[in-house]
Amino acid sequence: MSSPVYYDLSELYLLSRGRLKFYGIARVVAEIGYELHLLDKGVIFVVYDETARAFFEVTPHFGKASYNGVVDLGFPEGAVPYRLRGPKPGRSLPNRVFATTFSTFLRAVNRSKLRALQSHLKPIALQDGYLVSAGRPKLLVDMIDCLARTGSRTRFYPLLHDCIPLHDFGDKPDAFQRNFHADNNKVIRHASHIIANSQFTAKDLQAKVEEGLLPPLPGMSVVPLAHECRADGETAKLELPVRPYVLGVGITLGRKNLDVVLAAQKLLLEQGKTPPLMVIAGANRWRTIAGLNSGRNATVAQHVLMIDNPSQADLIRLYQNALATLMPSKLEGWGLPLGESLWLGTPALAAPSSSLPEVGGDLAVYFDPDSPAELAGLLERLATDKDYRLGLQRRIVAARSSLRSWKDVAEDMLAALQTPGGQPIDAAG
């Protein structure tokens, strides 16, 4: 490719080390970046700094040279800048005044951090070529302003992960929905081309355009994410549960539908049966903890084990030793845990909703996400029918070559840049 390709690592720039392993979008950014590094040594890695209002070229550590086996920026501890919080439209005057004051304070702190990072950041002007980003839209809007302000002719190719907050938008959206809506509108208006992470996300984006919630799309390619679950070279240290368990990664009450799992466990208890242990891996959510501690879940709380932020090695071990992975979500842009489970040869139970059938194909076992009875029957069969469980495993292992790797994703991302008609950002847009 004759024009330079810039790959945005700002998502990692603003994260501490520990969150990268389980924060879904950051993981996607890191995995694609690593594979782009392997595929094309000419890719230029950049970050955008809000305080400096400028892009910087960075030289990341990749693979075995990184602390996580994928990519890290190699910055000194404590030098990561804070995310700025400016005033949001529609907020009260006291709220806007506080946000402005606090943002001014954070800018001063960030300037000292930038001085500590001088040897790691090389100023770079993006004047042409392609800027590819898989980061959150809330981080992309500031980059758009910079490109427009500097008159850049760089073509902008964002990967959009979902538009779930626009579901049930209604007449009185909450602050998160309003901000998500504004950020995605701006990203789409200024993008040269949109990359969607699944067919479902592509259709969902178009549906929101037709509803008038999003502006017309400039053109769109679909690049499905990967099933691959990469080991980071660490040794697993977590002691596994002594009883049979099913695994939910990042599963919570609400949209991700831990509710149906708890209801299924209750049914099994009412039938005089012991349900499999439900292991929840990922960042502990206060709402989930509060829900488990409420009276309505008193009978099943002892059958739930929460493991806060296990290492990648421990997570892989949890996948490999589970009866199955559960993904009962009602809305997902992709569904990384479902794909990772299949990659590691572990049966997966999923709702046949949104993008999950794209991820699971004919290898996952699907159930009605509103039917605790159906899920209870599947859990009991997994726990008691060894031949059934082994049959599922054999089918998954036999289909391993059909699953997508992160290399596949990176190759498809580069191919999307060849789509004709992409325009640079319009400063007047």
UniProtKB/TrEMBL annotation:
Coiled coil: none annotated. This is Glycosyltransferase involved in cell wall biosynthesis. Keywords: Transferase. Residues 243-389 form the Glycosyl transferase family domain. The keyword Transferase applies. It comes from the Bacteria. It holds the Pfam family Glycos_transf_1. InterPro entries: Glyco_trans_1. It comes from Aminobacter aganoensis.
